Amino acid sequence: MDRNQIAKWFKEPSKMANKYSLHAIYFCTGCGIIEVPPVITARWDAERFGVIPVATPRQANLFLITGYVSVKTLKAIIRTYEQMYEPKYTVAFGSCPINGGMYWDSYNTIKHLDKYIPIDGWIAGCMPRPEAIFVAVTHLWTLIDKGMANGYERYRKYYRAYRRNQELALGKLEWPPLYPIGEHTEGGECD
Amino acid sequence: MVGRILQFVLYPLVALAIGVFFLGLARKITARIQWRYGPPLVQPVIDMIRFFYQKSVSHGPVFAVGLIMSLAGSIVVVLFLPFGSICPLSGSGGLLVVLYVMLLAPMGIALSGGQGANPNISIGISRKLILALGYEVPFLLVLLAVMTHYNTISIVQVVEAQRDIGWSIASLPLFLSGVSYLLILPAMLGFRPFDVSTAPQEISSGPLVEYGGKYLLMATIEHALLLFIDIALFVNLFLGGAGNPIIFFVKMLIVFVLVLFIHAAFPRLRIEQAIRYLWKWPTALALAGLIIVTIGRS
Asked: Is the ipTM here above 0.90?
């Protein structure tokens, strides 16, 4: 811990604690699972920065999605994301969640993950090196500091649009809406 | 009078601070044994601050009440344990009260988990209670041997008796009982060869799976207090307690690091392997210890 940050700790304890205690839940869809073990074990020890993997979305506040997202896994991703408690941050790892990557013309993968759940940070590459996770974490720190890692607030604000996109991809959803979808919910259409 | 009230208020806080320090030390030393650098020592405090500020969802009234019950039980047990010269409630009850109230902590967690209605919680709690069945048998035998040998149920009197004749674990009649307590200590703390109930990879941390935010904060505090209670009881009964808190703390630290080495080096046992171990060696040693103590008295 940096000694110059003590004043900051007293000023904004919640923000600082969120920065330095990122409990991650990894959603390794297809590829990318092999990049995670070196990050959390002895090669590049992510626990130095307070990043540890946890087993349940209830305890986590960082959601790391690696690899391409098929329509079937999208359902699990949305449900996992909605089970996490706020404040929560998401990072998409690899080209595929950004724009489809090499699966850009596949009939069964989704192209832009950002349409379905809000993403705070992207790591481009196919596949990125494990060090890229640390770059993402330090960028996420900067974003949290500036208050720009507000994906969960965007999700609440534009929930109607997100829900509509999710229904377009998955058909009828079998779980109730996380936030009330009423007339008062502001939020435009997005595609 | 004021000093006594201060003791009541400050002693659980000191116990909590020591427990949280142990949690951080556990992560750091485990990391160093695994050739990692490890998190800063204050990492559990940072985590706890985050848990405090995170939103959480309750699954019903008992979900919170069970946790509060287990926390209250732990705090009460702390008050009954002498910590060096500090012992707010040492005059009453002693070992018997500790024995009974210690059961509140797992029961509260089980109650709270029942409301969570997650299958992983049920599996975790059944494993925890089976494991408790495993270590309670040698634990009771050990305490019985101590009570028989010193002819008292008061922990303070046990500590005082050791001041004259030396540590119990170094004396012949109680040596086997002390070794038995050391052997079941990882199971009581839920450390690695015996972390079947909170196994993250198998059952998603078992009873903790639905806790987040402030509930997880309470569960962490309860775990920290549990570390303090089990180790402090061992130091009091077998390592001669201490005249002042600092020496007591150093003794606790040594015992904890010993348990930690086992934690960092061994893989997890299955539940039936754990029970087979617990009912074999520690129970046999505790039973032999009790027989030796009984023969020595007659």
From this structure: no
